[in-house]
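It would be a great kindness if you could assist me with a short task in structural biology. The full record is reproduced below for your convenience:
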Amino acid sequence: MVLFGLVNEGYAGMFGFGKTATVHLSPPVSGVVKLEGNPLAGIEVYRTLDYDREYIDRAQTDENGQFEFPEKSIESRRPNNLGDETRVRQVIGLDYGGKNYLLWYTVPGGITPRRALSERLGNMRCELITPEKEQVFANFEKPEFPHSTFSICRWD
C-alpha cells in the first residue's frame, strides 16, 4: 500500500496532476455604450466568464456611457488533468429597452492572455443600433488559429 501511494505521488508530481495552474479568464475591460451616438448612463453591463464554473460580475455605465471590469484569473487543477479540454468562455452584454445586446462573445482558445483580445476588450465602442456580427481577427500568439468574436461593438 505504501509503495503504491509513493508511486502515485511520484507520477502525480512528474505529470503535474494535483497541481494548480493560473487560468486567465479575461484581461481588463473598458468600453463605452451609446444609443444613436448618445452615451447611455446608469446601464448595467454584465460579464460572464466560464471555465470550471461560471463567474459573473456587473458594472454600471457612468454619465459618459463608460464601463470597466478588472482583469480576472483563477487557480485551477483542470489544466493539469490528462485529456482535459475545458475552454474559457467570455460573454459581455447588457439589457436595455427589453432587449439583450451582445457586446462580446468569444472562446479564446487557451488559458493564457491573448494580445488581440486584450487590445479589443480594452477599447470597446458599442453602439446599440449597430448589428451584431462575427468578427475575425489575427491571433498574435497562434497565427494559424485566428480569433473570432460575436459583437455589436467595433474597433479601429
The two ends are 63 Å apart (CA to CA). The chain has two helices and 13 strands.
